[in-house]
């Protein structure tokens, strides 16, 4: 029988201090060339070990081999200048130094496939691999070439589809596309964002997920959340479109957020990765708190479709806090599993 409530993380986990300085985004590598390659692989093994020790069921790479969930992918494409970066405002919210699209983009070789093969060799558990979604990619760069967000998203979708097919071939069980931009640009999601995502998953036989959150626990995001009022209804704008799509799993933010749980009703039938761990503070949830969040979600999600998860990536947290939160997630899920067995 398949395990009830399989736990996973959204993707990123803190890196060991010898690989990159902790507690920040775009943290620079501490190693170079061959040492960096070896260091990334070692960090992947450490990350796997920490997830297994914590009892996580669906393993991710912890994003140990990438500096950032979007820009690292973009930097591997031709047609992109990542040396002469530009500063742009992303998600309408905060400034970031990003690569520049200067020509037609193309994926000359795979980006993460070797990393995925490496992880696949280390564990028999299901593995999930995160890729940036087309709309979020468009929103995390400066475009000097296409001059159309829609056109560029479509090109990214084609490139992502190739990468995803090779990841599937490498034995990845779930491919997840990170689309935090979906929570900001509703009109574009409905015009072309969802279509681009569907293009990215075209022909895949493995499971597919979309992760839509309110961002990493950094100050700009936390400030933004304070402006969203007592009910965050962003998901209401996009879930109907997702419900009609071929995406299998929806990953969303719940714990400590003002998202009304009943919005999950809009994607009834899909699998839901319910965020039961807050990544924006250092307080480690108790298993009971995790269980309470899952219990509330169960009013709107069938138990076989509930996948306990984190709200977002944990890259900006300390390793100790991240470890504690992983264990709390497992322990909280176990409380509910026991209730369903009796
Ligand atoms: Zn996220």
UniProtKB/TrEMBL annotation:
Pfam families per the UniProt record, alphabetical: Meth_synt_2
EC number(s) reported in the record: 2.1.1.13
Keyword tRNA-binding: no
UniProt keyword Nucleotide-binding present: no
InterPro entries the record matches: Met_Synth_C/arc, Met_Synthase_cat, UROD/MetE-like_sf
MF-aspect GO terms: 5-methyltetrahydropteroyltriglutamate-homocysteine S-methyltransferase activity; methionine synthase activity; zinc ion binding
Cofactor(s) named in the record: Zn(2+)
Any one GO BP annotation for this protein: methylation
Domain Cobalamin-independent methionine synthase MetE C-terminal/archaeal: residue ranges: 5-329
PANTHER family assigned: 5-METHYLTETRAHYDROPTEROYLTRIGLUTAMATE--HOMOCYSTEINE METHYLTRANSFERASE
Official protein name in the record: Methionine synthase
């Amino acid at each position: 029988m398949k395990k009830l409530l399989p736990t996973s993380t959204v993707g990123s986990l803190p890196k060991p201090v010898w690989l990159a300085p902790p507690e920040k985004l775009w943290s620079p590598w501490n190693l170079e060339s061959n040492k960096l390659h070896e260091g990334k692989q070692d960090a992947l093994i450490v990350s796997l070990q920490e997830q297994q020790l914590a009892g996580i069921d669906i393993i991710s790479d912890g994003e140990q081999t990438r500096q950032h969930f979007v820009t690292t992918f973009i930097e591997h494409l031709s047609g992109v200048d990542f040396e002469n970066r530009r500063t742009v405002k992303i998600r309408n919210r905060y400034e970031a130094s990003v690569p520049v699209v200067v020509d037609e983009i193309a994926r000359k070789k795979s980006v993460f496939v070797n990393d995925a093969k490496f992880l696949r060799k280390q564990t028999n558990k299901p593995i999930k691999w995160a890729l940036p979604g087309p709309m979020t990619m468009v929103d995390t760069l400066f475009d000097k070439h296409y001059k159309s967000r829609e056109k560029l998203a479509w090109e990214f979708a084609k490139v992502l589809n190739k990468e995803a097919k090779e990841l599937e071939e490498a034995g990845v069980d779930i491919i997840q596309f990170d689309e935090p931009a979906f929570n900001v640009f509703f009109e574009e999601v409905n015009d072309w964002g969802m279509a681009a995502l569907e293009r990215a998953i075209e022909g895949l036989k493995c499971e597919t997920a979309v992760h839509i959150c309110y961002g990493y626990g950094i100050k700009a995001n936390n400030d933004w959340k304070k402006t969203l009022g007592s009910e965050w209804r962003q998901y209401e704008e996009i879930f109907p479109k997702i419900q009609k799509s071929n995406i299998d799993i929806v990953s969303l933010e719940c714990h400590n957020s003002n998202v009304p749980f009943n919005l999950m009703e809009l994607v009834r039938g899909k699998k839901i990765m319910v965020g039961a761990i807050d990544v924006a503070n250092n307080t480690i949830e108790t298993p009971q708190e995790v269980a309470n969040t899952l219990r509330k979600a169960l009013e709107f999600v069938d138990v076989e479709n509930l996948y306990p998860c984190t709200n977002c990536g944990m890259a900006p947290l300390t390793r100790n806090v991240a470890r504690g939160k992983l264990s709390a997630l497992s322990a909280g899920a176990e409380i509910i599993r026991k209730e369903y067995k009796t």
